[in-house]
Amino acid sequence: MADLGEMKSFYKDKRVLVTGHTGFKGAWLCRLLLDMGAKVYGYALAPERESLYGLLDWEKGLVSCYGDIRQPKKLGAFVKKAEPEVVFHLAAQPLVSVGYAKPVKTYETNLMGTVYLLEALRQVERLRSVVVTTDKVYAETKEAAEEEERLDGFDPYANSKSCAELAAACYGRCFLQGKTVLSRLRAGNVIGGGDFAPHRILPDCIRAAVERKPVILRHPEGVRPYQHVLEPLTAYLWTAWKQWDAPELADCYNVASKGEDISNGQLAGLFCKYWGDGMKWQAEPADFPREQTVLRLNGGKYRKNWAGRHAGMWSRRFLQRWHGRRSGREAAI
Q: Is residue 213 within 8 Å of residue 163, measured between CB atoms?
C-alpha cells in the first residue's frame, strides 16, 4: 500500500518524542514508531506493574525517561537531550474518577504539564511537527460535537483537557508559528488490547469474566464514541506526517469513527453476549459523581482534510501484520 510505504519513509530515522509513553496509547504508539524505524524518546511516569508497556520488548530503539510531566526542569533536560523533530503529547491524568478525587493534581498534570512541555519545545531548533492529544473537551450537548463547539468539559478531568486545548492553541500561534506546526486532536473513548486501567469498561469486563462475576457499570446510560486504539493513533501519525509539508492544515480535529455511537450498557451487553458462559452486567447502585451523559464527536473535518479513509485502512493493515508476526504473550495482547 503506497500510503503505508510513504509514512514509513517519513518516520524512518526521525527523532520523535512521545510523552506518556508508558500508558496504554503511548506504548502502542511507540511500538508503531519503532516498527517504522523512528528514533523514539519517551517521557512518562514509571509503568504500572500490569501494563502493555511491561509486556512489550523495548530492547531496540527506545530511549526512556521516567519522570512526572509536572517537573519542568527534568522534562526540559530530557527534551533538550532528545532534540525531537516530531512530538506526540499523550501524557495525562486520564481518569474521570481520579479527576474528582484529586482535582488539583489533575489540573496540574493536564494543563500545566502541557504548558511545561510546550515551553521546553520552544527551545528546540529542529522541531517541525507537534500533535497534542485531548478528549471530552466540549460543553455538554446531545448532538455530535463539531470543532467549533464551546470548550467547557463538565468534570475536572474533562475541564482540565479543555484548558490544555486553549494553552496549546495559544503556544501554537504565539511561540511556534513560522517554525513548528501544531495540531490538537480530540479522540473518543478508546478500546483495545493492552488496556489494564481501572474504571474502563472493557478491562472491567475482562476482570469480571475472569472472576466469574457480573460486570458492574457506573453509568450504563452513558453514550460514547468508542473506537479501536489504532484508529486515533493512526490519525496522530498521519497528522504529524502530513502537516510537516502542509502547515496550513494544522488545526484542531475530532477523531471519531463513522459508526453509530453506543451506550456503555450496549457495549457491555455485546461483551457478555460474545463471551458467553452466562456473563451479565448490572448497574452499580452507589452514588458515583456525575459524568457527561452523551458524548458524540463529528469527525467529518478530519476525514475531509486528512484523508482519514486511508489512515483507517493503514491501521487495519498494521493490526493484521502485528498479530501475524508476534508470538507468545505479545500475541495474546
A: no
pLDDT under 70 in the chain at which residues?
Answer: 1-2, 286, 307-333
- For 244, half-sphere exposure in the C-beta direction (CA atoms, 13 angstrom radius) is 16
Sequence-distant (≥ 6) Cβ neighbours of residue 121 within 8 angstroms: 79, 84, 87, 127, 130, 176, 180
Q: What is the pLDDT of residue 180?
A: 96
pLDDT at residue 314 in the model: 52
Question: Which tens digits make up the pLDDT trace of 258-282?
Answer: 877 899 999 999 999 999 999 999 9
> What span, in angstroms and rounded, lies between the C-alpha atoms of 122 and 110?
19
Residue 167 burial (C-beta neighbours within 10 Å; 0-12, 13-18, 19+): middle
Cell numbers of 11, please? 518516520
| pLDDT number for residue 319 | 54
How far is residue 92's CA from residue 68's CA, in Å, rounded to a whole number? 10
C-alpha radius of gyration, the chain, whole number? 19
**pLDDT for residue 326:** 46
CA 270 centroid distance within chain: 24
Residue 227: φ, ψ to 5°:
-155, 155
Per this entry, what is the length of the chain? 333
Q: Which among 212, 215, 211 is positioned nearest to 202, based on CA atoms?
A: 215
Task: Collapse the DSSP code of 156 into the 3-class scheme (helix H, G, I; strand E, B; otherwise coil) and give the result.
Answer: helix
Predicted local distance difference test score (pLDDT) of residue 257: 82
pTM metric for this prediction: 0.91
Question: What pLDDT score was predicted for residue 288?
Answer: 72
